[in-house]
Amino acid sequence: MYIRTQDNFGYVPGFGEPPKSQLPELRKKFTSSVVAYKNAADKCQTTSCSIFVPAGRDLKQLDLMIFFHGLLDVCDSKHGFDPDNVIKKFNMDTQVSGEQQLALVVPIVMWNKNDRTFGYIRSAWSAAYFNAFVDEVLDQIGQSYNARPTLGRLILSGHSAGYDILTPLADQFDCDVAETSKGALGKLGRVLALDTMYRTKDAQSFDQWARKRPAVKFDLVLSKSDPSVAVWQDWEKRTRKRLTGTDKRPANVRVFHQTTFQHCELPANFLTTYLDS
């Protein structure tokens, strides 16, 4: 038996943890104590996050997807910098509910131009902070269910400007930074990139990351007429061989061209489409 409060829920003392089939849905917002930084205006910038765990999940091995949105003003004029609105806008809860054992966390990224130029955001999401952040998320889920889940696999997903987090993280993998083989990143199972190829550097780092982790699946989804299409095609046809010494795409990389979907439609339609294939 369990009771639920506004933000989370707990169990009635003496009744213990309910069986997996009875674990209720969890929707929870929290402010990260891990991802915080001084921004270009010399102010402390916190990170608001939303967790969604569908009903009936088994906490003994819970897969977790972290989704990094792009420029919210481009795709959603009513976002209010609220991570719950991001989940709602892109129909993420429905998509995640259809995947066995998958839970979702969405942090709000304040894509301020100066913060990006000076690297404050990418530094805040370095490999070490990634691992600490996932531990923080698992702790938050554990507080609500009265039992901390064990991480099965980690899935990283980014849309559009999300490249400014995924690309430097990829470089840390290529440089064999110790934290990339530990903790949550040591359980990385999938990387999903939705229109994140805006520079040759993004394509190169994605390619190198896949070669560095051949057991991890890397999916690139490109929308109709997005600049990412031309950047990736140039990488495939001309640049890869010059910079990597081979013209072959890594075996664990798949590319999907969605010719009927626009840029802002990708997260609402392809967040989990290819996870089981």
Overview of this structure, please?
This protein has 277 residues and is of the alpha/beta class. It has a single domain (26-270), classed as Rossmann fold (3-Layer(aba) Sandwich), CATH 3.40.50. 34% of the residues lie in helices and 26% in strands. It has an eight-stranded mixed β-sheet. Strands 1-2 form a two-stranded antiparallel sheet. Strand 8, helix 8 and strand 9 (217-223) form a beta-alpha-beta unit. Helix 7 packs across helix 8 (200-212) and helix 8 (200-212) crosses helix 9. The radius of gyration is 19 Å and the shape is globular. The protein starts with a strand and ends in a 7-residue tail after the last helix.
Tag the structure with descriptive keywords.
Rossmann fold; 10 helices; eight-stranded mixed sheet; alpha/beta; 277 residues; single chain; globular; disordered N terminus; two-stranded antiparallel sheet
